[in-house]
Amino acid sequence: MAQHNPWPDEGNTGHIWDEDIRELDNPPPLWWMLAFYAGFVMIVFYALYYPTIPWTDSHYKGMTGWTQVEEYKEDYQVLKNWRDQKFAQEEEQLAALPLKEIIENDELKTYAVKTSKVLFGDYCAGCHGAGGQGNPNFPVLADDDWLWGGKIDQIYTALEKGRIGNMPARGMMGNLNDEEVEQVADYVIALANGNGDDASVSAGKAVYQKGMCLACHGPQGKPLAANGATNLTDQIWRFSSERDEVIKTIKYGVMVKKDGELAPNTRNAVMPSFADRLPDAEVNMKRLAVYVHALGGGQ
Amino acid sequence: MSDQNKDPHYDATHKSQLEGMETSNKNLQNIGVELLSVHTDGTVHAKRISGRFRTIKWVVAAMWLTFFLGPYLQWDGRQAILFDLVNRQFHIFGLTILPQDIWVLAMMLLFAALALAATTAVAGRLWCGYACFQTVWMDVFTWLEEKFEGNPNKRQKLEQQPWNLDKIRKKVPKWLAWAFIGFMTGFSFVAYFDPALDLWARLFTLEWTSTETIIILGLAAATVFFAGFLREQVCIGFCPYARIQGAMIDTETVVPTYDVDRGEPRGRMRRPKPGEEAPELGDCIDCNLCVAVCPTGVDIRKGQQFGCITCGLCIDACDSVMEKIKKPKGLIRYASLAEFGGKPFTPFYKRPRVLVYTGIMTFAAVAMIWGLINMSPIDMKVLHERAPLFVQMSDGSIQNKYYAKVVNKTDQLLEAEITVDGPDSLIYIVDEKINVQPGTVGTATLLVRIPKGDIEQTNTPIDIKVQDLNNPQVKETYESMFISP
Ligand code: SF4
Ligand code: SF4
Questions:
Q1: What residues of B are in contact with residue A18 (Cβ under 8 Å)?
Q2: Which listed ligand is nearest to B287 at the C-alpha?
Q3: Domain map (residue ranges) of chain B
Q4: Residues of A with CB under 8 A from a CB of B
Q5: How far is A110 from chain B (nearest CA, A)?
Q6: If you ran DSSP here, which 8-state letter would residue B97 be given?
Q7: Is the peptide bond before B265 cis (omega within 30 degrees of 0)?
Q8: pLDDT by position in tens, chain B (length 485)
Q9: Class of domain B378-483
Q10: Which of A251, B77, B348, B431 is deepest in the core (most CB within 10 A)?
């Protein structure tokens, strides 16, 4: 601030910076003052119209009772009603339409898949993995190999009735000795790998007949119907592809009972029925069937 | 500058802009000393004379006609330029910009902002003087005023005259003309957001929404108020750009400047009376024409000042005078302070400031063009299923699952087809076609399978492609990975 004032006559306040920037003392223009006073008048109207004044326990409600929160709630309700109505519609259709039609209908299918995620996580993922990727000794749901069929209705039946695997120990008649079990194991492994020329394998082929394995697994190692027996010619193993494990499966069977209890070493293969386990089972089983069907291998 | 040393705010390390310049030239002597006054006494009634800069001004102003005509351009059966706020789509000719691509418009803004800075650094307030809507509208409004009320003298008189029939007869038609331009301005602006033809139709059936009505009438009123009544006060007192120009102009910027050395001492040309010695006068004959033509009421002879919008009209005026008195033109001319300081002229392409501005502009322009070229009306993102990452199928092949999200940026139903490119033996399963409603996202589940023997690495690159079935040149590719054990 300079000490001297080189502009004594222009009515400046004597505050001068950087040599020539000074503060003047001009009255504001009339229109500006009018707008300023109009502002005061506005405040009165504003304060009366809107909720403005806080009391101790509540506040002044304004002339119309309007609040931002109320307006927001109303708008939200409109959206929510619209959504609820749409969802109710989809639920209704889901319950009413046959499964085949649901998977043909893009919108409904998407709805079923999206609303199944949590259910699948709660009820199915424990055994079958979060994305249906399976777990050791529990089938993968995302592949194209189905023990009981991969059609939508077959999947639904599995959910509704449950599935219990079953294979007698040591062949259908239980008459295979340890050597024969090893031979048939070699044969089965060769079936999947597509090479079958060493002695054990050709011996195994005869054992396959003798043990009546073909009754379930089919004459070529391929079941003739979706009866729960595994396809022995493909790359997917219900339990394990290790020779020792294959031998174990044949020796002790699957779900073999002894005195009303599971026999030692036998494989466990039970999927319970979900008709009583799921809430709203009717529609939720349909929903899950669509979900599983869409995982990657549905037929 | 005299008592710098006494000033506690004076920073001794501060380097003057004038460092290394020859400061004997009078143009450099009054810099920073005097605060130049702005015109504050009543409306400026500037004289109109023809000249080079006047012509340039009209040409530049004519470009604003596109603002009024723009809404009527049609493209493919709809308005060519339409900012559809309700559907959140910006149409610019064949292009539809969705909110996802809005950064391209941001680049456009960056480019414009830097163009403003760069041109200012080169030649002062080119935008203000020639192109700014305030300047242009005000120019047209005062031109109309002259048509209705006559030259500046008559206008001044009319203003002082008490209200009578004659005054009303002159003023009312002028106001109506102004109001019409104001209305068209508001209307054209809104017509970029709501289709113009529809807006006209709804005007005559009185079906404008309250928002439309308020914006159009509000803009109309603002136009008349700003261009008709406030005029140069907007440039002097309101516009922030007027204030930051000081930081953008340096000693090498060329701006309309009065050559003090050549013009002073000014004085009227008089034939010396016999016996009297002819006074030694400069070239300025003190006719004040340069002040009379100035739309902001500035006297440029006092030096460059913030009231000056560098429109060049005073150059036209003074040149016409110099022509009459047979002196070389250019007593007022586009010149830089460096020129008066005896420094050689630096071409703009050698000035770091201009180069930096231009660099950023180039970046923005390249980004914008890149964005526009790569902007496809269709967009796809692909998510790979994570649980499980892959599945072994019964024939030993590996399957991966993907979710493709297809964005339709057009205003028509999109029928998209998804295909996959990768190893020869790759097969894929996906819906034959995906219907995506305009401006929405459609999802498709995609299954890709590769036989085990053909997989060479755990991550096989594949290209997922989407194509508009009705418009096969519209396509997008998404590079993804096929994961195997
Ligand atoms: S001084 Fe000259 S260049 Fe500046 S605004 Fe006035 S007429 Fe235009
Ligand atoms: S128009 Fe030229 S001659 Fe006339 S007063 Fe202005 S600078 Fe001087």
A1: 7, 9
A2: 2
A3: 1-62+124-343, 378-483
A4: 2, 17-22, 106, 110, 129-134, 140, 142-145, 231, 234-236, 294-297
A5: 9
A6: E
A7: yes
A8: 444 444 444 444 555 555 666 666 777 665 554 455 666 667 888 899 999 999 999 999 999 999 999 999 988 888 888 988 887 778 888 777 777 778 888 888 999 999 988 999 888 899 999 999 999 999 999 999 999 988 888 888 888 888 888 889 889 999 999 999 999 999 999 999 999 999 999 999 888 998 999 999 999 999 999 999 988 888 887 888 877 876 788 888 899 999 988 888 888 877 777 777 777 888 999 999 999 999 988 889 888 787 889 999 999 999 999 999 999 999 999 998 888 888 888 888 888 888 999 999 999 999 988 888 877 778 889 999 887 888 888 888 899 999 999 988 777 788 999 999 988 888 898 888 888 887 788 888 899 999 888 888 888 899 999 988 888 888 888 999 999 88
A9: mainly beta
A10: B348
Cβ-Cβ contacts under 8 Å, A134 against chain B: 388
Question: What span, in angstroms and rounded, lies between the C-alpha atoms of B334 and B39?
Answer: 23
Q: Cβ–Cβ of A20/B33 closer than 8 Å?
A: yes
- First-last CA distance in chain B: 80
Nearest C-alpha neighbor of B408 from the set B473, B480, B476? B476
Give the closest residue to B298 by CA, choosing from B316, B311, B281.
B311
Query: Chain A closest CA to B434's CA: distance in Å?
Result: 10
Q: Is the pTM of this model over 0.80?
A: no
- Ligand 1 first shell, C-beta below 6 A: B 256, 293-296, 298, 300, 308-314
Ligand 2 pocket at CB < 6 A: B 258, 263, 284-290, 301, 317-318, 321, 331-332
The domains located in chain A, with CATH, are 1-66 (no CATH), 86-164+274-293 (1.10.760.10), 178-268 (1.10.760.10)
Dihedrals phi, psi of A219, to nearest 5 degrees = -60, -30
Nearest Cβ partner of A133 from B34, B391, B393? B391
Counting from 1 in the atom list of ligand 2, the atom nearest the Cα of B301 is 7
Tokens of A142: 């995302």
